[in-house]
Amino acid sequence: MMNRDVIEIPLFFNLRFPCATTEYGIIRQIRDTTMKRSLGDERIQRDELANQAMKQLTDKSIFKENIKLIFNNSDLFTRYYHDQVALAQDEAKVYQLPTSFVQRLLTLNQTRSITNQLQHLLIGHVELFEILKFFEISMQLVGEETLLNAFNEQSIQNCISDQSIIGHNVFYTLVLIEESTSFALIPPNTTMTNEDEFTFECNGDAWIETNLMNLIELLVSSTIISRIDNIEQLINCYNRVIQSILSLNTYTEQTKNVFENACSLGEFNTTFENCNAIHEFIEYLRNLFVDSESTTDNVLLHRHRTLLKLEMEFLKN
Q1: Which pLDDT tens digit goes with each residue over 125-164?
Q2: Its domain of life (predicted)?
Q3: Cα–Cα distance for residue pair 137/237, rounded to 1 Å
Q4: How far apart are CA 67 and CA 70, in angstroms?
Q5: Are 173 and 167 in contact (CB under 8 A)?
Q6: Which of 29, 186, 195, 234 has the fewest CB atoms within 10 Å around its CB?
Q7: Taking the model in full, what pTM does it have?
Q8: What burial letters (b/e) apply to 52-83, b meaning 16+ CB within 10 Å?
Q9: What does the DSSP 8-state code read for residue 199?
Q10: pLDDT at 317 over 70
């Protein structure tokens, strides 16, 4: 029998375009080239990198001249982007999030151009993967139906100057000021009568940042916490959330602040102003086990290690 090379061809279902996997391979090549260029010259700005990557994609796309038609037709681009997002999810090994949910997260902000949207795949894939894992981790705790319903009901509100808008009772509300194309962010259970009071500036996509902040609000909400039977599951989820937040470059600061400010369970309320406050929070969690049923030494040891690990993560920040 002749020796033959075996080429593995991955199977993907529900893709909209032919040759989508080949196109994603081209995107990965462009990504690698762009990363090497940025490492070789730190003076190159992010926008310049994105424009260079877009030019390469236009020149090298498997769809050749038709790629320009795709980019200029919203329906075609929606189908094209769906495929590339689905393939990015596969690369990131994020299988539980529906692609439609991810696509909506990345494209709902109409102030962002096609170049901005493709940046997530071309030069921002590392952070994109972490964001997707963040949502997937959280979905394991709150449940798929709860998470999808909560976020699919949200949208960017439009308003003109001096218009009063009532914010959501649980989540942050992102508002687009039409006259200036700037954003305002209304805190939960708050009414905006003057957009200048809630001006929102974001280094990345304001819609993505708002969703990250609202995801944290959901995770620490009394509704979700009251449903948790296993406090260790909750602690482990929070620990992984902290690690995900710290791995982000664009969306770290405000998202982390929301998590720290929202960490209120029962009568415990803190903004973690110092190390003692963090320790008090951990002790509060530890005391939740006092009235629980007796457990084995192994369970107690694992519980102690889990709490200690969570405390160390807080102390790092």
Answers
A1: 999 999 999 999 999 889 999 999 999 999 999 987 677 8
A2: Eukaryota
A3: 7
A4: 5
A5: yes
A6: 29
A7: 0.78
A8: bbbebbeeebbbeeebeebbeeeebbeebbbb
A9: E
A10: no
